[in-house]
Write a structure and sequence with these properties.
Elements (H helix, E strand, L loop, with lengths): L1 E6 L2 E5 L4 E5 L8 E11 L2 E3 L2 H4 L3 E11 L3 E7 L4 E7 L2 E11 L1
Antiparallel strand pairs: 1-2, 1-4, 3-9, 4-5, 4-6, 6-9, 7-8
Keywords: Ribonucleoprotein, Ribosomal protein, RNA-binding, rRNA-binding
Protein name: Large ribosomal subunit protein bL21
GO biological process, one term: translation
Length: 102
Amino acid sequence: MYAIVRAGGRQEKVSVGDVLIIDKVNGEAGDSIDLTPLLLVDGETITSDADKLAKVTVKAEVVKAEKGPKITIIKYKNKTGYRKRQGHRQPLTRVKVTSIES
């Protein structure tokens, strides 16, 4: 059994035991969060109806908070001496899917 869930602005294919890295969610390590299911595949049965998906719960456990890779932003204007350098690391959260219940 697997599900397609909305997590951090993207859609992810998950099954029980999968570890995902998604955009930051509030919560400490060990906290449980619910992910929104968009599609559920259970053997031969495919569920995409919104009314039936409202009864499906996909639970995940927060493993730890992380940061993404460093991205360097450089702005430069010719002949004016203007240079600006900036860095960014996106806050992320590592979660482990614990259950998919329909």
